[in-house]
């Protein structure tokens, strides 16, 4: 373990990735439950759990976390769907959704009459010709295109499958528009999550296992970032990004140790 | 300049899109007859990839034209000749009506993917299958039959970046749908590759059509109603381009375009008259 750069300020806010950082499927990363408690017990630290999800609602995420042994509240979770919802609310947009049924739960109460926005997540059943054409016509009429994120593909039990990024690109191409991407690694995602707890980027650290989406994204948004060597981490990942991580930790517990030591 | 070969767009030049077969454009039948009797060789150059040649010929015959199969140059025969000469094995995602055009090829262990205007065949399953077929290739080859943004579904009118115009079309008939270009873009993005476009405005497409006519670009002219796809594409390839004021033409499009046609004709008759009188 080596310190890549020196933090100047005391850390007051911590953004924490979920899958691969705290747990893998239904199993906690060893020591993560206890370390999270340590972080909670420490004075004057505010936490937010941030994750890219394109098809699971907060409730679904929370019930998995509870099952896994974590004690996390709904209001502490900020997902790419939350970011999309915030964007819709801030700009008074009425969406046409291309989202899974579960993801739709996070948009309850939003008016979607006479849509002037198209929101695209991961929803294989929604990506058919008729829906794509409907979305396209809305875009031609000036609707805003919102992408939860732009993954090229994702892993399924039966192999790789086309991700939402492909369908977002199809709509961008035909309607001549650019999508607003709301998930990690967009700077807006981190800043929006942060504004929920009231922190500034310099006094915040992001902890995650994805060098690009978690660490590079956060650093580019002006936050500090710790890369953990669990989950999807592969050897040398820290060398593939610029700027370099604030710190590279074996796991979440070591990341917490680093923060608490720094604040002493 | 002596013109030795003429390429002519179909929709918006020979007939206007509309309900059913649409309607013939005034004096276009006479213009074609005049061209045919002049002996100047020509080809009808289209991006149409969802109807077979036979159906297209019938449609043109209905409007009073007399063409035979070899007068029409369309993406499917063009891509088939590339597949043959490069010894490729195609996996095709095209309209149901034209799938049989590819029956002659061995499609086991595909080495290229052919994507056409597949209409409602563009489902997640089919797109996902196409994606996985591309991933399975050592060096993925994607042929896109045209790369249209969208189609005015009553006809085969390809519209390029002309939003002023397109919105007007859309409001009037509510039939504007996605074209193959959207799905090509999706696969290009997912696989991080570039498609080879078989259709206007790709220079390669004009070249193959000219080879078919056995004339060189500087001896040939393209007549069409789409300033970007027809005129811009032809000029980039070294042909002259004549824009007709029929089909999707609007004065606004001509004014705002960066493409300057070599001549602007009222209609096909005017264009042919200009060519043949200049010739004499």
UniProtKB/TrEMBL annotation, chain A:
Gene3D superfamilies: HAD superfamily/HAD-like. CDD domains: HAD_PPase. Its cofactor is Mg(2+). SUPFAM superfamilies: HAD-like. The gene is HDHD2. NCBIfam families: HAD-SF-IIA, HAD-SF-IIA-hyp3. InterPro entries: HAD-like_sf, HAD-SF_hydro_IIA, HAD_sf, LHPP/HDHD2. One of its GO terms (molecular function) is metal ion binding. Belongs to the HAD-like hydrolase superfamily. The keyword Magnesium applies. GO terms for cellular component: cytoplasm. Keywords: Hydrolase, Magnesium, Metal-binding. This is Haloacid dehalogenase-like hydrolase domain-containing protein 2. Transmembrane segments: none annotated.
Automatic annotation (TrEMBL), chain B:
The lineage of its organism: Eukaryota, Metazoa, Ecdysozoa, Arthropoda, Crustacea. This is Phospholysine phosphohistidine inorganic pyrophosphate phosphatase. Phosphatase that hydrolyzes imidodiphosphate, 3-phosphohistidine and 6-phospholysine. Has broad substrate specificity and can also hydrolyze inorganic diphosphate, but with lower efficiency. One of its GO terms (molecular function) is inorganic diphosphate phosphatase activity. Keywords: Cytoplasm, Hydrolase, Magnesium, Metal-binding, Nucleus. It is an enzyme of class 3 (hydrolase). It holds the Pfam family Hydrolase_6. It comes from Armadillidium nasatum. One of its GO terms (cellular component) is nucleus.
